[in-house]
Automatic annotation (TrEMBL):
Organism: Gilvimarinus algae
Full protein name: DUF2069 domain-containing protein
Alphabetic keyword roster: Membrane, Transmembrane, Transmembrane helix
Transmembrane spans: 21-41, 47-66, 73-92, 98-118
Protein biosynthesis recorded as keyword: no
Any Pfam family: DUF2069
Top-level taxon: Bacteria
Amino acid sequence: MKTPQYTTDDIVPLERRYHRARALSAFAIIALCVLFCWANLTEATGSWVRLAVQTLPLALFLPGIWRDHHRTYSWLCFVVLFYFTALVVAAMGPQSHWTDYLGVTLSVVLFCTAMMASRWCQHARLARDQNASITQH
C-alpha cells in the first residue's frame, strides 16, 4: 500500500475529524454503560454480576481513549462486535425491549466512530510527522 503524502494544510482537518470521532466514541461507550446500568438496576432480571460483565470490558478502553492510543480504538472495534451480536439477538427475540434497539444503535455508532477514530488518528500523526521539519522552521 502506498503511503499518502500530506501537506501542512491536511493536518487540521484530519485532527478535527479525529477529535469528533473520539468524542462520539467516548459518548457511545458512556451511553452504553449508562444503558446497561439502567437496565440492570430497573429490570427484575438485572443483577450486579451481569452489570459488571457488561460494563467492565467497555470501561477498560477509557484510559486508552483518554491517552489517544489508536490501537485502543482498533481493539474496541473487535470487542464491540460481541456487544452488537448479543444486542441484535436480544432485539430480535420475542421479548425485546426498546433498550435492546438503543443498545444496537449505540454499538453501531461506537463501532463506526472507533474505526474512523483509529484511522484518522494514524493519518493525523503521519501528517504531523511528515511536516514536522516544515512546521519547526
